[in-house]
Amino acid sequence: MTGRDHGGGIDAAAARFGGARADWIDLSTGINPVPYPLPDLPPRLWRDLPDAAGQAALIAAARAFWSVPAAAALLPVPGLSSVIPRLPALAAPGRVAIPGPTYNEYAPAFAAAGWQVSSDDPAPTDDAAVVVHPNNPDGRHHAAPARTLRLRVIDESFCDLTPAASLVAEAAAPATLVLKGLGKFWGMGGLRLGFVIGDPRLCDALAAQLGPWSVSGPAQAIGTAALSDTGWAAATRARLRADATRLDARLAARGAALAGGTDLFRLYDVPDAAALQDHLARSQVWTRIFPWSPRLIRLGLPAPADWPRVDAALA
Question: Which domain holds residue 57?
């Protein structure tokens, strides 16, 4: 386990502020609080090894949902965190641009593999680039890095909120990988199901490292159902947009200024982020602050039943 800062940590929050884990509302992550409803699964999926038919159905559903170019490969993986440490080995070390602040697993992975890491926007003089699009935690959108780079990684973990902004068309270009997952928009972080889309040579190299049966049979079936349900996706985008607007109004009433975010998490500028986090924690509402900023606080969206408690904690 790493010591890098992430959301979550409810057990530690409960130990500090009191209450059982079940008492807490976790707004420290950017995960949809209303997850995709699980389909009924035949018992054989829990007993048998994953089969080729299940994998093929999952790949077909993912290709259709994200309009994946025919020239791009698509590799299901057991969560994107299984892939990130393997990305630096896909090209010879050089200078990699990882515009920050951003998701904090990429820079250490590349640095550990001998890369020189820059937090600036990608430039033609770089050898590789990793962009989180939209960015976490500020929601910034990126242009596609230059196609002359030796490795281009585009993390679209939060792009299913704004599919028109997707750069998945770039996945057909050499040395390019677009990362997707079911953890955020579909609210299934525990499923550990992600997708690497792009250069077939790079996808084959990752597949060889992950080995056979890296995605379970139940994950294949659940992912296929979720990616095939475009009606649920459309309704969910509308609900999240409305809830994000509602949260903005609640925080504005407390004097917070919107500093960025997506429809799954909002970033606010306040005079003292740690003080606001502590205030909300005393009502068992957990949020996220950042070691690099004393003023920024990030809140995910409450589940529908949790809004009254969040409103009371903010009052």
Answer: 44-228
